[in-house]
Amino acid sequence: MTAYTATVTVRLKRGVLDPEAETTRRALERLGFELDGLRSMDRFEVDLEAADPAAAEERADEMAERLLANPTIHDYEVEVRER
Amino acid sequence: MTVTVVQFGGSNCDRDAVGALSHLGIDAERVWHEDGLPEDTTGIVLPGGFSYGDYLRAGAMAARSPVMAEVRAAAEDGVPVLGVCNGAQIGCETGLTDGAFTTNASARFQCENAYLRVENADTPWTRAYDEGDVLSVPIAHGEGRFEIGEERYERLDSEGRVLFRYCDADGNVTDDANPNGSRGNVAGVLGERDTVAVLMPHPERATLPDLGSTDGQGVLRGFEAVSNA
């Protein structure tokens, strides 16, 4: 078994309104910053042990499917590295 | 023969739900989620509130708690289930109903009165009304914007599973009357069975005459047939 950290990034699907990001963008502009856009997303770093990177990725993928993301509104990606 | 109001840590409309149901002569009791559903449960309310502090997403944690497996099984057996506000979010997160309730377009918590148009009067939850009736029912939520993919929305709509839409006082479904940016102004939907329904507005806050509107009574009366059987 090898120790891995699986990074799960959960973001809203394209086209789904993100009012929090929009509010944050406006606040940045109020502070005088110039920007063309802003997206926010959640990142989870999951420490786990698995036989190989593929097995670690598979488990993290299922975590995203079943809890970390809501497939109705979210896309997600998983990245695995040794820790 | 009792409607079980499932109380999670952070539920705060559970007492109101019991009070409103009792006012209508419907036997109801609060049950702590870890105690599971009582044997004599003939209906289930998932009440409003902020279960698990809205961690991750509103309703996400409660949806994965063991009692929800029991609620899903009961729903499949035809036991009526009503999710209100946080209970609606839990219902969607559990897959009892399609779609998701997420951050209001305003990015603000909104506590105000809303008008709802009855879209389908042929359900246990709306048989006290006629299609097109306008109800005055309060909302109180920060994450009530109904989101769903285009195809799934079309299916929901064509199958008559949209229960209520936000409208103006005259029943016009307009963008201005949409408090939270919900797709299609949807305020409440049915599950696969019409015995399962969720809505963001609070019918239990529009039941007792002392609180003003009693327009929400008909929704709670959806439990009546079974609880008095």
Automatic annotation (TrEMBL), chain A:
One Gene Ontology CC term in the entry: cytoplasm
GO MF, one annotated term: phosphoribosylformylglycinamidine synthase activity
A GO biological process held by the record: 'de novo' IMP biosynthetic process
EC number: 6.3.5.3
Enzyme class: ligase
Subcellular location: Cytoplasm
Biochemical pathway: Purine metabolism; IMP biosynthesis via de novo pathway; 5-amino-1-(5-phospho-D-ribosyl)imidazole from N(2)-formyl-N(1)-(5-phospho-D-ribosyl)glycinamide: step 1/2
Transmembrane segments annotated in the record for this chain: none
Catalytic activity of the protein: N(2)-formyl-N(1)-(5-phospho-beta-D-ribosyl)glycinamide + L-glutamine + ATP + H2O = 2-formamido-N(1)-(5-O-phospho-beta-D-ribosyl)acetamidine + L-glutamate + ADP + phosphate + H(+)
Highest rank taxon of the organism: Archaea
UniProt keyword list: ATP-binding, Cytoplasm, Ligase, Nucleotide-binding, Purine biosynthesis
Pfam family for this entry, one: PurS
HAMAP family recorded: PurS
Family membership: Belongs to the PurS family.
Biological role: Part of the phosphoribosylformylglycinamidine synthase complex involved in the purines biosynthetic pathway. Catalyzes the ATP-dependent conversion of formylglycinamide ribonucleotide (FGAR) and glutamine to yield formylglycinamidine ribonucleotide (FGAM) and glutamate. The FGAM synthase complex is composed of three subunits. PurQ produces an ammonia molecule by converting glutamine to glutamate. PurL transfers the ammonia molecule to FGAR to form FGAM in an ATP-dependent manner.
Oligomeric and partner information: Part of the FGAM synthase complex composed of 1 PurL, 1 PurQ and 2 PurS subunits.
Protein name, UniProt field: Phosphoribosylformylglycinamidine synthase subunit PurS
Gene: purS
From TrEMBL, chain B:
Organism per entry: Halobium salinum
Pfam families in the cross-refs: GATase_5
Record-level Gene Ontology MF annotations: ATP binding; glutaminase activity; phosphoribosylformylglycinamidine synthase activity
UniProt superkingdom: Archaea
Function per UniProt: Part of the phosphoribosylformylglycinamidine synthase complex involved in the purines biosynthetic pathway. Catalyzes the ATP-dependent conversion of formylglycinamide ribonucleotide (FGAR) and glutamine to yield formylglycinamidine ribonucleotide (FGAM) and glutamate. The FGAM synthase complex is composed of three subunits. PurQ produces an ammonia molecule by converting glutamine to glutamate. PurL transfers the ammonia molecule to FGAR to form FGAM in an ATP-dependent manner.
Protein's UniProt keywords contain Secreted: no
Transmembrane segments: none
Keywords: ATP-binding, Cytoplasm, Glutamine amidotransferase, Hydrolase, Ligase, Nucleotide-binding, Purine biosynthesis
Protein name as annotated: Phosphoribosylformylglycinamidine synthase subunit PurQ
Catalytic reaction equation(s): N(2)-formyl-N(1)-(5-phospho-beta-D-ribosyl)glycinamide + L-glutamine + ATP + H2O = 2-formamido-N(1)-(5-O-phospho-beta-D-ribosyl)acetamidine + L-glutamate + ADP + phosphate + H(+); L-glutamine + H2O = L-glutamate + NH4(+)
Subunit structure: Part of the FGAM synthase complex composed of 1 PurL, 1 PurQ and 2 PurS subunits.
Enzyme Commission designation: 6.3.5.3, 3.5.1.2
Pathway assignment: Purine metabolism; IMP biosynthesis via de novo pathway; 5-amino-1-(5-phospho-D-ribosyl)imidazole from N(2)-formyl-N(1)-(5-phospho-D-ribosyl)glycinamide: step 1/2
